[in-house]
Amino acid sequence: MTRRVDARDVMDADATTSCAVSGRIVGVFRRSGPNSWDDYVLVDEDGGPIEVFADTPIQVEDGATFRMRRKSEVIRVTWLPEDGALEASVDVHTLFLRSCVRREPSTEGNLAAWLHGKLDEKHEPPD
Question: What is the average pLDDT across 49-67?
Answer without folding.
Answer: 93
